[in-house]
């Protein structure tokens, strides 16, 4: 195994010493195997989760205008239903991945989204549509918490920065759905000036849901049938199944056409050494990690430094979740209503502008990959700078006096917003210990979803035709950037419970 090491993210008092020592051994083996075919396949298949997390929450905003025209309702109610589903999904699948394993959660979440998303296209009324999109969101809500844990559990520490690049799937998802919505909504929707709107004249949003549901099903089938995800060795070690963990390490090595010297004796020896210093009952192998208990949550607050870190991450996700949901969920509606004030608020221009915004967001993921590795800036600095700039440009967008100006300000905001999420996903997954990573991801993701539920409630009482949602979102994002600087851990150059070359 590799003798080269770099500093771990944690000190020995932060996590369970037996688990910590075993993870060091596993990480050395994964680093020896290197970044191979198996890890690149995971990058693609886990990217499907980022794709789903992008397109499905975003679609409620894209289809809002034609649905309001047909069903005559207060727009934020649809976003409220979707965000409640996202909250449930984040809790169930995130915690579940630490209880029954990563594999089941990884395979089932996209399947749920695809089946119910396809069904949502046939909705005859608002209640049916909202209910089906809520169930879709239950599946979607678990994707990123689970998929980020899967990726970091199996990728060498030397390549864990690729988690920041994973957000390119998020950007491509928004681009694809915007490209589909542009012709479908513009050409198969009721006229904005029509007094009544019937189903036959308003099929565009239904076509969009049919296409997206079918595409999500295809992606889920690829995960299940074309790629065999092996269970996380770190999860298995966390519940005392050392032999299975070693077997999987060897399977990954064989898949990558390489070898590893790891044996189960390397892990059992650690357990025996520690048992000489304390009673074995203190470290149960199954009961506390194989059922749904608070053991994983407690581990995230085990020390003062870890508790501060977890609390700040929860606050960051909540604040940014509220700000981005409040703004992004109603962006097409805002573009249309503000455009109407400028006498150019047609559906064609609205969705054309949405495509432009989606294109601008793609380079943000690649810039994030570069920025998080810069000395003295790292993850925290990149998150703080991108948040400050995104908030500033949101404020600047309120000065727009034409659709072109509004589009320009939103392009810059979208660029930095994608950097924010790329870094936020990365730093959260890196900081949480691997055996509790699913729960940690679930905790921050659930907080984001809780505040996401509050966003449409705020929108119900705020005038979306004014700049109020913009001012609220901008101030919250800037505040989040300041909080990022207070994080006690900087993962740049350190291993997330891993050894690095």
TrEMBL record:
The keyword Transmembrane applies. Residues 1-492 form the Major facilitator superfamily (MFS) profile domain. Pfam families: Sugar_tr. One of its GO terms (molecular function) is transmembrane transporter activity. GO terms for cellular component: membrane. PROSITE patterns: MFS. It is found in: Membrane. Its main location: membrane. The chain crosses the membrane at residues 40-69, 75-95, 104-123, 129-154, 161-185, 205-226, 312-335, 355-372, 381-400, 406-427, 439-462, 468-489. Keywords: Membrane, Transmembrane, Transmembrane helix, Transport. It comes from the Eukaryota. Belongs to the major facilitator superfamily. This is Major facilitator superfamily domain-containing protein. It comes from Mycena rosella (Pink bonnet). The lineage of its organism: Eukaryota, Fungi, Dikarya, Basidiomycota, Agaricomycotina.
């Amino acid at each position: 195994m590799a003798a080269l090491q770099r500093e771990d993210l944690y000190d020995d008092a932060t996590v369970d010493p037996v688990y910590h020592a075993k993870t060091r051994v596993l990480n050395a083996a994964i680093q020896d195997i290197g970044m191979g075919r198996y890890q690149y396949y995971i990058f693609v298949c886990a990217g499907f989760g980022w794709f789903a997390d992008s397109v499905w929450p975003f679609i409620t905003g894209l289809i809002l205008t034609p649905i309001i025209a047909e069903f005559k309702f207060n727009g934020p109610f649809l976003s409220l239903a979707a965000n409640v589903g996202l909250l449930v999904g984040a809790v169930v699948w995130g915690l579940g991945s630490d209880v029954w394993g990563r594999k089941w959660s990884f395979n089932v979440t996209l399947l749920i989204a695809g089946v119910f998303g396809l069904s949502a296209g046939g909705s005859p009324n608002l209640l049916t549509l909202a209910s089906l999109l809520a169930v879709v969101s239950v599946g979607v809500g678990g994707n990123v918490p689970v998929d980020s844990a899967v990726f970091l559990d199996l990728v060498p520490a030397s390549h864990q920065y690729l988690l920041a690049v994973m957000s390119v799937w998020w950007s491509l998802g928004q681009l694809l759905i915007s490209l589909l919505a542009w012709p479908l909504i513009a050409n198969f929707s009721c006229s904005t000036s029509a007094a009544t709107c019937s189903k036959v004249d308003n099929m565009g949003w239904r076509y969009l849901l049919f296409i997206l549901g079918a595409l999500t099903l295809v992606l889920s089938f690829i995960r299940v049938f074309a790629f065999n995800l092996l269970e996380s060795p770190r999860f298995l070690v966390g519940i005392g199944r050392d032999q299975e963990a070693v077997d999987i390490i060897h399977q990954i090595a064989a898949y990558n056409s390489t070898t590893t010297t790891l044996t189960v004796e390397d892990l059992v020896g650690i357990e025996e050494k520690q048992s000489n210093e304390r009673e074995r009952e203190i470290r149960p192998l199954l009961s506390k990690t194989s059922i749904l208990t608070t053991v994983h949550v407690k581990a995230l607050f085990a020390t003062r430094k870890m508790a501060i870190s977890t609390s700040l991450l929860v606050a960051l996700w909540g604040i940014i979740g509220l700000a981005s949901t409040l703004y992004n969920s109603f962006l097409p509606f805002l573009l249309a209503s503000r455009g109407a004030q400028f006498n150019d608020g047609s559906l064609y221009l609205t969705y054309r502008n949405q495509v432009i915004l989606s294109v601008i967001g793609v380079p943000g993921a690649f810039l994030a990959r570069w920025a998080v590795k810069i000395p003295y800036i790292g993850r925290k600095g990149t998150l703080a700078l991108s948040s400050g700039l995104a908030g500033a440009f949101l404020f600047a967008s309120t000065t727009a006096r034409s659709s072109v100006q509004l589009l320009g300000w939103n392009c810059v905001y979208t660029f930095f917003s994608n950097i924010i999420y790329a870094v936020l996903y990365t730093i959260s997954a890196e900081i949480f210990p691997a055996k509790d990573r699913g729960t940690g991801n679930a905790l921050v993701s659930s907080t984001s979803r809780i505040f996401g539920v509050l966003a449409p409630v705020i929108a119900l009482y705020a005038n979306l035709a004014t700049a109020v949602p913009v001012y609220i979102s901008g101030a919250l994002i800037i505040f989040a950037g300041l909080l990022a600087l207070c994080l006690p851990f900087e993962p740049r150059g350190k291993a997330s419970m891993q050894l690095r070359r």
